[in-house]
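Re: weekly structure request thread

Next one in the queue (208 aa):
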Amino acid sequence: MTEETTDRQDTFFAFDDEQEEPDERGGRARRSIAWKPTAVGLLGLLLGLVLVVSAALAWDDSRRLAGYADRSWVISGQYQDLTNDLRTKTWNPIYRGVLPADEAVTEQPFDSGLADPRVPEAGEEIVFRGTQTGSSEDDFHQEADALLAVEDGTLQVVETAEAGEFGDGVTAGTIAWQRTQAALLLIAGLGAAVGGIWFARRLYRREN
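Done, posted below.
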């Protein structure tokens, strides 16, 4: 056996000794898991996933509302009652609110989702069907925002959400800001995932 072969064997067994430690019976024990680096890496990946999902939801919101930018109104609604959903066996909330004091709302019929469409008056008090679905009163907001827009020649409640969700209205600036938030959340999510893995690897090398 040559000296070079002997050196290679010594190196191999030395590396093998670093990977495993003998147990109490003199056998080979499986290498213990590095729990701290593993936990750090998983935490980074989990945080990154949460942020990426939040980014996707924010982008989806901006995409859904983009068609109503600068051509919609936002009114506040107070919860009144429940009514059967038109498509499922669940319920919709009924809200009471006041139409905007804008003559543009009188240029077409208003469909409340509860009665036949009719031409309203600006600033008129109305009741309308919310877009959320649920099984009981507890599933709905007591105060909500309603987004009104003209669809197919009729003024309709196109979406209801928690009070404050739509701010002062949906504009091009609103959509741009939502998309900026989505991009920032995506970058933060990717950074958290990559940073968690990098820090876990560094911690692992430090411990070993």
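Residues 172-207 form the longest helix (36 residues). Helices lie at 3-19, 35-65, 172-207.
Next request, please.
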